[in-house]
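Study both lines:
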Amino acid sequence: MGWQRRMRVAAGPLGASGEASDDQPVQVEMFISGAWVDITDYVMVRDDQGNIALNRGIRDEGSNTEQGGGTFPLRNADGRFSPRNPTGPYYGAIGRNTPIRVSVPDGLGGKNCRLWGEVPEWPVSWDTTGTDVWTDVSASGLLRRLAQGPAPARSVIYNAITDPKPSGLVAYWPMEDATGATSLASALTNGSAMTWAGVPTLASYSTLAASDPLPDISAATLSGGVPRYDDPTATQVRFLVYIPASGLADGKVICSIDQQDYSPGAAQFWELYYSTTDASNSLVLKSCDAAGNNLGALLPHVVDVRGRLLYVSVEFQESGANITRQIQLKDVNTSRVYAVSDTEFVTQLSRVTRLQFGPATRSAISPFGAAFLPGVAIGHVTLENQITAIGALGVRLNPIGETAGRRIQRLCGEQGLPFDWVGDLDDTTAMGAQGKSNLLTLVQECVDADGGMLYESGSVLGLGYRTRASLYDQDPTLTLDYPSGKLAQIPTPVEDDRYLQNRVTVTVSGVSQTYEQTGGSLGTAPPPAGVGYYGQDVTLNLAASDASTLQDQAAWRVHLGTVDEARYPQISVNLAHPSITPDMRRAIIGMRIGDRIQITNPPDWLPPDTVDQLVIGTSETITHIEHRVTFNCRPASPYSYVGYLDTAARIDTDGSQLAADIGAGTTVFGVQPTAPNEGLWTKDPGDLPFDIAVGGEVMRVTAVGDAATDTFARTVSSAWGTMDSGFTWTTSGGTSTDYSVSGGSGNHLLASVNISRRCLLAATTADLDMYVSVTADQLATGDALNGGLINRYLDSNNLYHAVVQFTTSNTVRLLIVKRLNGTETTLGSYTMPAVTFSAGTYYRVRLNSKGSLLRAKVWLAADAETPEWQVTVMDTDLSMPQSIGVRSISGASSTNVNPSIKYQSFVVTSPQAFTVTRSINGVVKAHTAGEDLRLANPTILGL
């Protein structure tokens, strides 16, 4: 029965039946005895249960890339896939972590590798008859092995110096020995330890993160003997040194280099000392014979070394009968190199026998420095018999500031791992120090800091990295039309809080910053205003820990965690389906981690917008009848419309809403800021068009203007006529002859006292922002002359009035006046200081109304607007919109004869008038006043 159950269907080999639609093969290969061997004929794909199942990238809606993998059965009747079977054809050639790969045709004459992994075990199974024998292979991607790798035992600098070991390295003392050590061990098997006189403080200097702590030799002299080697033509001594900001005493010897006595008069030792007399707080090199006599000119450096961590290189190179000497100082923190050199005549090099640090001066010529170097730390001393570049250690001397992409590339290179990438590795986040962790942990630090995607390379057993910046604003790699039937399963939208985070704290080097999204439907406000707090604390390894950098990092994570749309975790296609064209198949096969995929024309019960996702992983199954590829996805929108603050940027306001109800066909309507915001939309034609979203409908804005404007560039008698924006003024109060427009102004003739003249416009909202310039053509006598803006006008007895009052003392006052049921109340007032009114001089007044808040200001019209609100009041008596406009009146005791109040440049800046094209996304419906309005595609500032 077991045989019938397992063998009643075609149980492999696959041969050329891997993809039934075009009979193209799947190829399975194994690396055996140094060559790739095709084992496809042994793969058993059983139509009822067996298949080739592959996966890679991020799966199961996870957060980090997981090891790729693949499972499939292999026919094993002859025992070839039993590693310990001595009669099997592959005995001794397969075992733990044998490389294996699965490929399909790429449509271009080559093949595309769907899995490149390793087989950690070879479990053998069989039925009771022994007829059916198979091995269920579970191959794993490279990440499985890397995750189990050990952390490095030594520091970054130690490994940089020793791996690979320079051919000319004669001696190396890392000096990273722990407290309690009795000497400083050599890193070379043929080297001897460095000893000391006095008492060094071991493992006390830990400022350099690339090194384990180094010794402070304030109270010690270090001495290291050098094993015998052939006389060189070049000698190079290098070491790290920190010299305190306070400096050292004149003549203190940093390093003494002894060489075997060559001949009388030849140099037997060199001293590199700190000097305030022979150099300005820098280092000087002196050559001495056995008696301490100076053999030539001093070689002084010019760089002030105080308070610096330096990588010092002292170099000697024979040149004929002479020696070229050079001192190079590399500032570890800035990477800048300072060099001085000269030629020492009539001498030669022999092998170095000893190096000392902090000894007393042996020179017979001053300055004479005593032993010990207060506050000085020394480490990573090397002696080489060749001259190498001062930058030979590269970024490993101090990895702080290395970009995340370049660090991943370097780490892989150091481990001999192939590495490929998508994007600009230099355009990635600057990293902090490199710790002593295993490779995968160090790589994941980089991924976390930059926010890109790690992946297992498909073309070789190696790693790859897709930079965060490469995810921005991509063109879709694959577009699928929903009605065409190209999807292998229904893509199900999911809306949950799995990835929600609206409050994130980022910590770097003990410094923390928090970013919180307080507003919006996914903000931290309690439901229903928001969703409450969702957050995390993230510790990152960054080069910078300033508040701005940490805020940017936290804000970006909140941006990713507040995507207000459904996600489609899986989008599946079947390559064997006849609707999949060759071009589409190539696109599917070529999809990379991080590529963009879209589904157009979704069904009517879903939102009308194109389903737009990023691929974060794949899983696929291959049988005799299908090759199904399922893309694991997340929304692409967080990475779309990413830009910079330049002329092309589109930045949303802090909040906007519809000023009034609009119908399904309305194409011109009012938009105003949402309290307490005040930001207005651009009116620059160069910024148009742009798309806005209102209640799920996307509209295209083709013009933005003020709600009402009037420059009074017309001549009208007994009325004010039609303003520039097309509205017609209505008049109220006095007689018709009291109203006229001429000479660029609208005029109210006050032929009778204490009777207001009003010019009005209908209003659809109670909250407005209005401006007008106003003057009187006479100086006030007997009583004040008044003009200004009105809002929430119901009738002449119920209104708010921002009054510019020209007084009999020729001062200019600003008042907010309420008339309620005919009773007038001054709510607030302000007198312009040091102003004497001159008839005909215009003053500009602004009235802003938001709910119960009323604000007003006045300034000379020829000047710039004053920044402060001069009168601010709260009042709740009038809240309904009806009319707005201007109102003029003379005081009851006025003795002026036929004075006029004149107006110029009337404008209602809020609400703004939007002219739109409706239903850009296929949605068209009515909307209510107060409905949220925002850019459909605002520019996102990338991390």
Notes: Confidence is low (pLDDT under 50) at residues 1-23. The helical segments are 2-7, 142-147, 156-162, 404-414, 439-450, 547-561, 582-589.
